[in-house]
Specification:
Layout (H helix, E strand, L loop, with lengths): L3 H8 L3 H8 L15 H29 L4 H28 L10 H9 L5 E6 L4 E7 L9 H15 L6 E6 L10 H6 L3 H19 L4 E6 L2 E3 L1 H6 L4 E4 L4 E3 L13 H9 L1 H9 L3 E2 L1 H7 L4 E2 L5 H16 L3 H16 L2 H15 L3 H9 L5
Parallel strand pairs: 2-3, 3-4, 4-6, 5-7, 6-9
Antiparallel strand pairs: 1-2, 7-8
Helix pairs in contact: 3-4, 5-6, 5-8, 6-8, 10-11, 14-15
The protein binds propionyl Coenzyme A.
The site of propionyl Coenzyme A has 17 residues, from helix 7 and strand 5.
Main location: cytoplasm
GO molecular function: methyl/ethyl malonyl-CoA decarboxylase activity
InterPro entries: ClpP/crotonase-like_dom_sf, Enoyl-CoA_hyd/isom_CS, Enoyl-CoA_hydra/iso
């Protein structure tokens, strides 16, 4: 089980709910490491051995330097060792807890990654601006920013980077070359067209997009051109969607004899309701900006169609919600994410826990001292 502090910190919810919600596998025989999979433990042991060798070298160095290995040196080494183990444990737990699938679900991430690595091309780029807004670019314009295998891997890496960006407040996702994304690269789709490989790719993308959805950042998909198939699924993992004139969202899965598999079906139902979702999916309907606004799938239609102008507009739109201390913006998103995903009582407890992190904190005290009224 998770300890309360980490559970709240990582997901903004109480320990029992986060375990239930995320379906984390437990290995009771492993005691405090009970949520770790055997392969992760093997990785940890390997890293521990490397660190031991490294620390031993420092110890020997001090021994020769001072003629003896004094207590201070030994204490420093032990303290370094403890900090390192703690950091590693927190990082691994964080990634596992935010995901949906692990080995208990027959999901072997390392094998999936090896397979995806074979389909190279394009990139996923991230820039982190001083304002606390990150810009994530889907960059494969030759094929309408379709996701190759290595782009799927890079998306996971960028999400990890965003999870560790403690000053972040918001994120805009957009596609290079004036179009959003045409889903999975059809070459990948053809090459892995058997059920098991398809499910593996789904589990990988669902894990990544679920972690994206749970980031403590306010996220916006900027839809220019087309968001098709997996591209349409990706936009549902964001908190908001903005569309440019002439752009289009389309779940084309039915036309390919499929249903969404990157979590876009489940998320679409939560955004537009089951009736509208059923129409969009079973009709493979083209959703223009006007219809998206009407359905609540888009927040606003921007006036610019060109990349730089639309990005600037999206930045200005998002800034309305990211102004202020990062601690408060991040807590707000965490609270809403808990309300979106948890049952009411668990969400209420989470809200209380998050409230407790802010009440009497620096932003709260400063607001009381300088702005006690809001006229
Ligand atoms: C998770 C499940 C999935 O995502 S399955 C994949 C679902 N996506 C699709 O089926 C999209 C297939 N593509 C299309 O329908 C059209 O290309 C769309 C996106 C509508 C764009 O049409 P249009 O504006 O006329 O451009 P185009 O067809 O000339 O495309 C430009 C070049 O890009 C390529 N492209 C496009 N999408 C993909 C894709 N998903 N995978 C691989 N290549 C793709 C096109 O083939 C075309 O390349 P080329 O210029 O012919 O060499």
């Amino acid at each position: 089980m998770l300890d309360a502090a980490t559970s709240h910190h990582l997901l903004g919810c109480s320990p029992e709910t986060s375990v239930v919600m995320l379906g984390t596998a437990t290995y009771p025989c492993l005691g405090p490491f009970s949520v770790w999979s055997p392969s992760m433990l093997a990785d940890l042991i390997y890293v521990c051995i490397c660190v031991c060798i490294y620390i031993y070298n420092i110890y020997i160095f001090f021994f020769f330097l001072t003629g003896h290995a004094g207590n201070a040196c030994l204490e420093m080494v032990i303290s370094m060792w403890k900090n390192l183990l703690q950091t590693m444990k927190e990082r691994i737990l964080q990634q596992r807890r935010m995901s949906v699938y692990n080995q208990a679900h027959g999901y072997e991430e390392e094998l999936v990654k090896k397979q995806l690595q074979q389909f190279a091309g394009g990139s996923i780029n991230l820039t982190k601006e001083d304002s606390g807004i990150g810009i994530l670019t889907l960059n494969n314009p030759k094929i309408m920013n379709a996701f190759t295998g290595t782009m799927m891997l890079e998306l996971q890496e960028r999400v990890t980077e965003l999870e560790n960006w403690k000053d972040g407040k918001g994120l805009i996702i957009y596609g290079a070359g004036n179009t959003f994304c045409s889903g999975s690269d059809l070459n990948v789709v053809k090459a892995i067209s058997n059920s098991q490989d398809g499910m593996n790719m789904c589990m990988f993308m669902q894990n990544t997009l679920t972690r994206l959805m749970r980031l403590p950042l306010i996220t916006v998909a900027l839809v220019q051109g087309k968001a098709i198939g997996g591209g349409a699924e990706l936009i549902t993992a964001c908190d908001f969607r903005l569309m440019t004139p002439g752009s289009e969202i389309r779940f084309v899965h039915k036309l390919m004899g499929l249903v969404p598999g990157w979590g876009g079906g489940a998320r679409l139902v939560r955004i537009v309701g089951s009736r509208a979702a059923l129409k969009l999916l079973s009709g493979a309907t083209r959703v223009d900006p006007e219809r998206a606004l009407h359905l609540g799938l888009s927040e606003e239609t921007l006036s610019s169609s060109d990349e730089a102008g639309a990005l600037e507009e999206a930045r200005a739109w998002l800034s309305q919600y990211t102004e202020g201390p990062a601690s408060v913006i991040r807590a707000t998103k965490e609270m809403v994410a808990a309300g979106r995903e948890l049952l009411l009582e668990a969400a209420l407890r989470t809200e209380k826990d998050i409230f407790g992190t802010l009440w009497g904190g620096p932003a709260n005290l400063q607001a009381l001292a300088t702005r006690p009224k809001h006229k």
